[in-house]
Specification:
This protein has one domain. It is about 70% helix and about 5% strand. It has eight helices and four strands. Strands 1-2 form a two-stranded antiparallel ribbon. It has a two-stranded antiparallel sheet with strand order 3-4. Strand 1 (about 40-45) and strand 2 form a beta hairpin. Helix 6 runs antiparallel to helix 7 and helix 7 runs antiparallel to helix 8.
């Protein structure tokens, strides 16, 4: 799958370097960064012919000293495609389940989806959130499949992993932070929610309470921010690291292309390692989507039952 796109990309860089006469070895580092970083265009190949889709660029919006650029990029395109895939998969399934009614068991793909939804509801959402958890099932499931589709789209030829961009994972983490804190306010009330930040043990002298509050309140606030920050970094780092390793190993084939008879052995070893890591990447893509959604449920459950 993805190997075809990577091979074409590195070979293209090698040909460009040879034609320019700048260097005999391919610019593997440049090809790696070109694949991993965001860009204002999407590149793909059809029947051996390369195409570049230049995305529209809009004038930046200036708000005071802040400049906001709303121009779409490569990662935005694949993020939108992941959202479209979610809709394309689950709207027909929801329609099929609605037509069959609650008295008949679904069949085929709808049956598999229902089993997965029930598993998430019972083992992830209800187990971690507790009373009133069913209302969060839709959000947790949407989060899981949205991240999963973004992760998997980086494994297809000429695809790109939007979750390899920390701005994407940061936005997901920010939404999770808002959901978690609002859930805490709704469950505990505004006064009870403030108790999760300003910790005042019962029976303590007012002076001691003021000192403890001054010390612990910043710590509690940092803890609330650290949890979604860990979600952001974990997802971004895992997806970025996997693609970096795959590209680096694949680039060894071209870096050692001029070492004589050994080049065939190096190429075979590199290709075998890349195939093994690609299989591991499929598992990692699924695992990271699961971890992100599960920890979101855990954080919601923690803030809803917080007490001091």
């Amino acid at each position: 799958m993805k190997l075809l796109g990577l091979m074409s990309m590195i070979q293209g860089g090698q040909s460009a370097a040879s034609s320019g006469g700048a260097s005999e070895s391919p610019d593997v580092a440049g090809m790696l960064l070109h694949h991993l970083l965001d860009a204002p265009e999407v590149e793909f190949t059809i029947l051996g012919r390369g195409f570049v889709w230049h995305l529209p660029q809009f004038a930046p919006i200036h708000i005071g000293g802040l400049t906001i650029d709303l121009s779409p990029t490569k990662h935005v395109v694949f993020l939108v495609l992941a959202a479209i895939l979610c809709l394309a998969v689950f709207i027909p399934v929801a329609g099929a389940l609605k037509k069959r009614g609650t008295n008949k068991a679904p069949t085929g793909f709808a049956n598999a989806v229902e089993a997965l939804v029930i598993y998430f509801r019972d083992e992830i959402v209800r187990r971690n959130i507790g009373h009133g958890a069913d209302g969060y099932t839709g959000y947790i499931l949407s989060l899981f499949f949205f991240i999963l589709f973004m992760n998997m789209m980086g494994l297809i030829p000429f695809g790109s992993t939007a979750t390899g961009n920390f701005m994407v994972t940061g936005a997901l983490a920010a939404v999770t932070l808002v959901v978690v804190e609002i859930s805490g306010m709704r469950a505990l009330g505004f006064k009870g929610y403030l108790g999760t930040i300003f910790v005042i043990p019962h029976g303590i002298h007012p002076v001691g309470a003021a000192v403890m509050t001054a010390i612990l309140a910043p710590v509690e606030l940092l803890g609330k921010i650290a949890r979604p920050f860990a979600l952001m970094v974990r997802l971004f780092a895992n997806m970025m690291a996997g693609h970096t390793l795959v590209l680096s190993l694949l680039g060894m084939i071209f870096l050692f292309a001029s070492v004589g008879p050994m080049r065939h052995g190096i190429a075979a070893a590199s290709f075998a390692m890349v195939c093994a890591i690609m299989l591991l990447e499929v598992f990692v893509a699924l695992l990271q989507a699961f971890i992100f959604s599960m920890l979101t449920a855990v954080f919601i459950g923690m803030v809803r039952t917080a007490h001091h």
